[in-house]
Amino acid sequence: MSTDIGMWGVPLAILGGAIRVSTPFLFVSIGECLTERSGRINLGLEGTLVFGAMSGYAIAFETGSPWAGVLAAALAGAVFGLFHGWICKFKGVNDVAIGIALMLLGMGLAFFFGKPYIQPVAPDLPAIPLGWWSDIPQVQAALQVNALFIIGAALAVAMAWMFRSTKIGLTIRVVGDSTDAARAIGLNPNTVRLLSTAAGGALAGVGGAYLSLYYPGSWNEGVSSGQGLMAVALVIFARWNPIYCFWAALLFGGAGALGPALQSVGVTSGYYLFFAAPYVLTLALLIFTSSPDKAMDGAPGELSLNK
Amino acid sequence: MADVTTAQPTRHGVALAKWLPRLEAVVIPLGALIAGLAVFSVFLAVLGKSPVDFYALIYKAGFSSAFSWQNTLSRVSPLLFAGLCVALPARLGLVVIGGEGAIALGGLAAAVAGLAFAWAPSFLGFIAMGVAAMIIGGAWIGAVGWLRIRRGVNETIASLLMAYIAIALMNHWVEGLFRDPASLNKPSTAPLPEHLRIGDMPVGIDVHWGFFFGLLACLLAWILTDRTTTGFAARIAGDNIRAAEVQGLPVGRLVIGFTALGGAAAGLAGFFEVAAIHGSANGSLIVGYGYTGILVAFLARHNPLAIIPVAILLAGFEASSGLVQRRMDLPDATILVMEGIVFVTILLSETLYGRIAIFKPGFWRADA
């Protein structure tokens, strides 16, 4: 039974879509936030996301447990992160370029090993029906919230607390702001960055598992359309703050949901343009928040992004 | 004897100081390429596939006969242009990776210009198409340089975002405004008239003119970067932007100019794909040439002349991809994995420059 709620379906579908679409943005961006706070940039998270989507789907299919898939995706992401962190340790190696190489390698490996898993159907991650109080099916549909979204939101809060109030957070911030200062107080910047990049990779891997195990909920070679890369831009917009990353992810999710939401009420012209809305939004925000002469507020001092 | 030993080091020293860095710049990337292919061999061996068979098939399908060379060379053109789109901005220290977008919009612009100039004689039509592709591609990537200079927007992320936007725009227009109603299954622009299709070069094998113009573009780019004061200024700015500004170099104009030139090159890739291969603009333009171009440029260490052999090598890999898949029962992403591994080893090899003793003049002097 469906209730006709007319054009109200659009904002409702955007809200529901924002929650659904934002989860991978959320995981990749808080992962990248962690890595960048330590002074490195990992542009390869798009590759990590795709590989996470593939490995999560494959393991969920083989074991029958979607959570085993999430774990596998996190492990695979951590391995990519470790690899990135290890290579960047060498003198003269450019972390931006390595990120691009790992983006291609991650996608290549995901397509290579993921070929046999395009057909089979893996179990989905469960959703929590937060719309139980309403009897309008559209509201219920919009508020079907996946557990990973809630975990991601909690992680964002926890990470903000970690940066502000814990020794680990302080260590990461010192290393990110000045390699020399970190060395002077006896920290090993390379180790801190290695671990931060690995943890960031693990989070991006989980974001990928969400793509293949919940929404859109299947594995194929077009499973990601640049979410991993947009999330990197989103971190800049969010001023390297995990809480802002959460709100920015929701905003991007909403932009991503615009096209499908309009399509669901019959607006089909300009489909490709609505599809491009998140990219336009990202670019506009980047232009708006960047500055030609001064380093950005909150930017870690050692980040090569702003030179 | 005493005269000889005191006189020789200076003369040798000059020659060594000149040639050793050049030798280093060839040996290290070549070594890294071989190392990458070796790592990929291990990958194949672990999966129970024979690396020897793999490379033999690549040689057979890509480089062994006139037919395979034709197969390879016909794929080189877009890689040359896409490589330039990365290499030219890289001279200024910019990592631009959105060439795919300029290829898409350049191809569309060429197709539309071709239809608008259908009445014109071939040479005029080709010029209109080429210029349209270069202007659109140049404006698209030049905008990335402009944003970098005026707003400090990171060029790597901006260029990739703009590539996604460009592809969306191309799809939108190919399915709407410029759609040929007769193209049912695959939305395309109307086919170009026969006299505006680019043919093969008169060299005995079927390789279209895009190859020639790609080589020419690389040569011109090399002259610009390595033989002109503009190129020299760009290199200084690439080493240290602040120092270049202090010296009064027009950094802003250099950045916008080099990104626009790179984009114009990528636009030409789209033009040749449309005019020589597809005959109209459609989704076939988006096959990842822009991304392979990133690898081409990094393998060539952003030297426009080195782009030529690298592009031929990678075109050979891609030309043999189909045969490798069928004969060895490997997925089509195999070449992508190989390219990714080679990319990583090439970047890793950057750490070796200045650290290998035999490339230091001192090593040879101490010997003498």
UniProtKB/TrEMBL annotation, chain A:
<dbReference type="GO" id="GO:0022857">
    <property type="term" value="F:transmembrane transporter activity"/>
</dbReference>
<dbReference type="Pfam" id="PF02653">
    <property type="entry name" value="BPD_transp_2"/>
</dbReference>
<protein>
    <submittedName>
        <fullName>ABC transporter permease</fullName>
    </submittedName>
</protein>
<feature type="transmembrane region" description="Helical">
    <location>
        <begin position="192"/>
        <end position="213"/>
    </location>
</feature>
<feature type="transmembrane region" description="Helical">
    <location>
        <begin position="244"/>
        <end position="263"/>
    </location>
</feature>
<feature type="transmembrane region" description="Helical">
    <location>
        <begin position="141"/>
        <end position="163"/>
    </location>
</feature>
<keyword id="KW-0812">Transmembrane</keyword>
<dbReference type="InterPro" id="IPR001851">
    <property type="entry name" value="ABC_transp_permease"/>
</dbReference>
<dbReference type="GO" id="GO:0005886">
    <property type="term" value="C:plasma membrane"/>
</dbReference>
<feature type="transmembrane region" description="Helical">
    <location>
        <begin position="67"/>
        <end position="87"/>
    </location>
</feature>
<keyword id="KW-0472">Membrane</keyword>
<feature type="transmembrane region" description="Helical">
    <location>
        <begin position="269"/>
        <end position="288"/>
    </location>
</feature>
<feature type="transmembrane region" description="Helical">
    <location>
        <begin position="12"/>
        <end position="31"/>
    </location>
</feature>
<feature type="transmembrane region" description="Helical">
    <location>
        <begin position="96"/>
        <end position="114"/>
    </location>
</feature>
<keyword id="KW-1133">Transmembrane helix</keyword>
<feature type="transmembrane region" description="Helical">
    <location>
        <begin position="43"/>
        <end position="61"/>
    </location>
</feature>
<keyword id="KW-1003">Cell membrane</keyword>
